[in-house]
Q: What sequence folds into this?
């Protein structure tokens, strides 16, 4: 039997699993709830038990699996295969993730940061088309990302390489959770879009359902802003244009430094689709170096929720036996 790969996407609410072929085809998928009670001590045992159950279910042994890869939030030590400071998992202290999984299952294990892993997934089997130079921007509750240059993930000396969300796009702008002001995350995440809308609403005097909802103190989500903008709400359109300006400026800066084949936009905010992508591309072209403008593409992610498990599985390809 040809060996398989197992990919794990570890999240604060759900742990997603996939069994894949060595060339990246997803054959089986499943998920379990993340039990982060008691300082997250149940998470690794739950992962081990779930994988063992599935191996038994599909009649697979440890020899049938080349390796297991995992994407995790928090500070990941790839060499020691540990995670520290993943607070949404209640993992404040160092967790010996790799050692426990390898000992229990007898399968080699690799781990990286979840945003980096999603970038690997999109690069390998998604919009990145397996090109060696790809940047992934994920727009969700925050703004994350991953940079792949010459086929390698950029980690930096402290593992903070690729912190795209903390690029400054508005000096002296909104305060960020990182302690700086004006980070991309403060204006282009799901909460950032609404923050921009609230700021612009202070001076807008025309008719707008979104402006009215903000003034009334109603709950407004980023999706509401994009839907209204596509429907012709002028104020909502101004908000989207402002967000697209920030994203396009950030993309141009990334492009001017790295000149990747593509800058891929994913995450919940990217559900706005071509409407947002085209606006970001316009701003990118405005600020990009001429050669970059001609050669770097702005694309939408293609893998959705599967990016994490596919990217995680790609980490484990290093353990496969080469022909």
A:
């Amino acid at each position: 039997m040809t060996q398989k790969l197992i990919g794990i996407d570890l999240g604060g609410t759900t742990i997603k699993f996939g069994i894949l072929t060595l060339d990246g085809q997803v054959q089986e998928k499943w998920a379990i709830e993340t039990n982060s009670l008691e300082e997250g001590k149940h998470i690794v045992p739950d992962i081990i038990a779930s994988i063992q159950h599935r191996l038994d279910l599909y009649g697979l042994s440890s020899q049938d699996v080349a390796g297991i890869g995992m994407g995790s939030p928090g500070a990941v030590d790839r060499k020691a295969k540990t995670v520290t400071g993943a607070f949404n998992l209640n993992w404040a202290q160092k967790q010996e993730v790799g050692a426990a999984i390898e000992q229990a299952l007898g399968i080699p294990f690799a781990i990286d940061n979840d945003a980096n892993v999603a970038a690997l997934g999109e690069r390998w089997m998604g919009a990145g088309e397996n090109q060696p130079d790809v940047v992934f921007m994920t727009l969700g509750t925050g703004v994350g990302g991953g940079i792949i240059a010459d086929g390698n993930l950029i980690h930096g000396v402290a593992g903070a390489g690729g912190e795209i969300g903390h690029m400054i796009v508005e000096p002296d702008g909104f305060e960020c959770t990182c302690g700086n002001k004006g980070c991309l995350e403060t204006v282009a995440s799901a909460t950032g879009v609404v923050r921009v809308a609230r700021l612009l609403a202070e001076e807008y005097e025309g008719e707008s359902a979104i402006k009215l909802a903000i003034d009334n103190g109603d709950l407004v989500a980023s999706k509401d802003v994009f839907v209204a903008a596509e429907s012709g709400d002028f104020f909502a359109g101004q908000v989207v244009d402002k967000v697209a300006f920030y994203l396009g400026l950030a993309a141009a800066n990334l492009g001017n430094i790295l000149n990747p084949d593509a800058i891929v936009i994913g995450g919940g905010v990217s559900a706005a689709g071509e409407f947002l992508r085209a606006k970001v591309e316009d701003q990118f072209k405005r600020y990009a170096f001429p050669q970059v403008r001609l050669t770097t593409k702005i694309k939408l992610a293609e893998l959705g929720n599967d990016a994490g498990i596919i990217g995680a599985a790609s980490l484990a390809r290093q353990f496969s036996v080469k022909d």
Notes: The first strand starts at residue 4 and ends at 10.
